[in-house]
Amino acid sequence: MPLPPSLILSTVLAVLWAALWFAWRGRTARDWAIATLAALLGFGAGQLAGSLLGLPLPTIGQVRVIEGTLFCWLALLLIDRTRRRS
């Protein structure tokens, strides 16, 4: 059973943002894994928030790119700040 295109696009975008974050701030494979997980969760939260709020921002199909990207970067920033404190 094939995956929906919106899920594939959302995953690709989240992993792309995680890769950019890792290239900028990462050091180890563990950083890559944590960044990828945070990006996926953040993008999903952005999708949910955008759907619930019904904001009139542009989308690509069912993918709310702006909200997903914003939440993705916020999750990456939050994880980075949390990990750097400890």
Q: Biggest β-sheet: count, sense, barrel?
A: none
Helix content: over 70%
Structural class: mainly alpha
Order of helices and strands: HHH
How many distinct domains? Answer: 1
Distance between the terminal alpha carbons, to the nearest Å? 43 Å
Number of strands: 0
For the CA atoms, what is the radius of gyration? 13 Å
Q: Shape, please? A: globular
Mean pLDDT: 94
Proportion of β residues? under 5%
Explained architecture:
The protein is mostly helical. The protein has one domain (5-85). The protein is 78% helix and 0% strand. α1 runs parallel beside α3 and α2 packs across α3. The chain is globular. The termini are far apart. The mean pLDDT is 94.
Topology:
Blueprint: H1 5-25, H2 29-53, H3 65-85
What's a concise summary of this model?
With 86 residues, the chain is an all-alpha fold.
Short key terms for the protein model shown above:
globular; 86 residues; 78% helix; mainly alpha; 3 helices
